[in-house]
Amino acid sequence: MFVVRMRDGTLELTGPCGPDAWYIESHEEDDPMEIVRRLSTNLLGPPLLVHSTSWRRGFGGVLLTFLVVIGEEQALELEGVPVTRMDLARNSATEAAKKISTHQVVEHALRHMAWLAQDDAAVRAALSPAWLAVLAGYVPEPFRHLS
Prior knowledge:
4 helices, five-stranded mixed β-sheet, 147 residues
């Protein structure tokens, strides 16, 4: 799980693990979305948005990646670092990338959010004009490697 907030017009990674991914273990019968929402609320306050953005096999199971958007004034005591832009992890049209950095996962998640901000009224309504302006710079590139 990656926690992102806006601070002074810049996206910032933060959370209980600072800017690092927050790993949460769940059981087969658990609803991952409910767990992420509940833990985020308990530790950071109510999130503005919770969205699953990707999955991969790993650590003996499936890793789901969630982007949790919190308000600018939430969890100010937690360390945060500005989000940096990154090229997406790539391979071929039929194989996953061999190596994926956490920065590339965040880049993918924000590009996904940029698409949803244009396509999904609930996502657009949850985000401030400042968020929408920053996301406008994140352009989804589906199947770029096929052209």
